Amino acid sequence: MNLNKAYWDKKYTHDKTVWDIGYISPPLRAYIDQLTDKEIKILIPGAGNGYEVDYLYDKGFTNIHVIDISAKPLQNIKTRIPTFPDGQLVQMDFFDLESPRFDLILEQTFFCSLEPSHRKAYAMKMHGLLNEKGKLVGLLFDRTFKNGSPPFGGNEGEYRSLFTPYLSIKVLEPAYNSIKPRKGNELFFIFEK
Ligand SMILES: C[S@@+](CC[C@H](N)C(=O)[O-])C[C@H]1O[C@@H](n2cnc3c(N)ncnc32)[C@H](O)[C@@H]1O
What we know:
Elements lengths: L4 H9 L12 H8 L8 E4 L5 H8 L5 E5 L2 H10 L8 E3 L10 E7 L10 H11 E12 L14 H8 L4 E7 L11 E7 L1
Parallel strand pairs: 1-2, 1-4, 2-3, 4-5
Antiparallel strand pairs: 5-7, 6-7
């Protein structure tokens, strides 16, 4: 299966976005709520409709960089937040992002949308994109899925082995505040460079 731009464009044009919960997820909201420095440089890769962008922006964070391989969800964000800078909504492949470096990268159902064979490249890329002490924070599925298409699942042990060579695992535990359909099937994590 080729999980390229055309694949994701089709999902958006046909409204086949089953992963889209329509609002910021409670675990990301709770994490953002305890951030105090509004100047930090934040990346949201594979953002999709990125409801966490609205939440961050409303709270006064402005150094937010949003990327997705598909343009449609980025246009949706722009429609919702007309004042959001165009240059910070970028249609591109995450793996082509060369610079700059970020203080915080937020993950939600982007990792699981990639071919499992790309996981090592994802971990290495995240290491390269973070400032020293920068953090990759978010959610990872703690379950398997049957089909041979996204989402691709995993478990804690697998994630520990994958990320330990690149990032320090500060938190990797069952999320207590998942949305109902994901309850018990999601790990909240904080990995630090
Ligand atoms: C399952 S969706 C998740 C969207 C969003 N994070 C959410 O939780 O609703 C995966 C997203 O990653 C994007 N994507 C997939 N591969 C990508 C890549 N290589 N670079 C950038 N974005 C990518 C897709 O277009 C899609 O919007």
